[in-house]
Design a protein that fits this description.
Elements: E1 2-9, H1 14-27, E2 32-41, H2 43-58, E3 64-66, H3 70-79, H4 82-86, E4 89-90
Parallel strand pairs: 1-2, 2-3, 3-4
Helix pairs in contact: 1-2
């Protein structure tokens, strides 16, 4: 099962997504997040992905990010964490 992340990943919305994603990580054998429906992201979105990576690491799980928006990748690059995020990015859009 894939968790579909949608809408905006910004300061006002990330606090809602963080616990949802953490719960999903802990209840799923191989967590996968699909970002195809994300319309806008800022550094808060990058922080969210890092929080989910930390949660997965604590649970000894590997997570997979699909369809990451270019805007989010660009912010991650500026923040110096692109390699962390890309190491969990799936290039399979199907």
């Amino acid at each position: 099962m894939t968790l579909v992340v949608n809408g905006e990943l910004v300061f006002n919305t990330v606090p809602d997504w963080c616990p949802k994603g953490c719960l999903y990580i802990n209840q799923t054998l191989t967590p996968e997040f699909d970002f195809a429906s994300v319309k806008l992201s800022d550094s808060s979105g990058v922080a969210l992905l890092l929080a989910w990576l930390r949660e997965a690491n604590a649970a000894n799980k590997t997570i997979n990010f699909r369809n990451l928006p270019q805007q989010l990748l660009d912010v991650a690059k500026v923040c110096g964490v692109l390699s962390l995020i890309q190491s969990n990015e799936s290039h399979n859009n199907g």
